[in-house]
Amino acid sequence: MPQDKFWDVLFSPSVLITFIVCAAIAGVIVWLRGKWIGRRQQQQLAEQRRQQEATLERLLEATTADKRQVVAEYEQEIKARDGRISSLEHQVARLRDRLTAGGVIGVFGGGKQRDVISALLLENEQLHELLAAKQSEMRDLMSDMTARLIDRMDEQAKESARAVRYKQALLSAFLEREETRQLLNNMLASGDVPQEAEVRELPEGNPPPVADSTTRT
């Protein structure tokens, strides 16, 4: 009968061998495609990680440059005040030496001499207080800048970690989907699943976003 002849041809060794070879080639192609896609995803993740590290490094360099500029300006201001204080102290010492050597109350009279010395001493004391205040202000500013820099670095590190975990979750879901599809194709090729059964193909596109553990906490 023609029907029996058809089945004999279908189940002949040559047809079965051809079918097995085609199924094996299809499985190898699917496996290679999955490996290539996974490698490409890993390369993209590595490139994004390098870009994030470069951005963080540029931010740190800019912050360090600003901090050095502020420190240099304050050092120049402190040097100028130190020079002025030294000059006033030298003038006060010179006037005291003149008073001691001359044995008189003052060059311009007792009241004027005392007023000049008192004014110089008062200005010298005020400059010392101003210098101490500026030094304390600079220390507070440096502490604040350091704290802000550390907070910014922590924030950048957390954002980078969240981004990397999210990309890894997407990649894992994608690879799982590819492995499931490859398994179904192998089962169809080997005949474990009937040809008449309807097998739904997994949807294309990106998997739904995976919630980050850090954002939930």
- Amino- and carboxy-terminal Cα gap: 73 Å
Average pLDDT across residues?
A: 72
The helix/strand order is: HHHH
Shape: rod-shaped
Count of extended strands: 0
How many domains?
1
Sheet with most strands? none
Q: Taking Cα atoms only, what radius of gyration do you get, to the nearest Å?
A: 41 Å
User: Poorly predicted ranges (pLDDT <50, ≥5 residues)?
Assistant: 104-108, 195-217
Number of helices: 4
- Helix content percent band: over 70%
Main features:
217 residues; mainly alpha; rod-shaped; disordered C terminus
Give a quick summary of the entry:
The chain is an all-alpha fold and 217 residues long.
Helix/strand layout:
Blueprint: H1 2-10, H2 13-102, H3 110-190, H4 213-216
Would you mind describing this structure in some detail?
With 217 residues, this protein is mainly alpha-helical. The protein has one domain (2-216). The chain is built from 4 helices and no strands. Helix 2 runs antiparallel to helix 3. The longest helix is centred in the N-terminal third of the chain and has 90 residues, at 13-102. The radius of gyration is 41 Å and the shape is rod-shaped. The model is unreliable at 104-108 and 195-217 (pLDDT under 50).
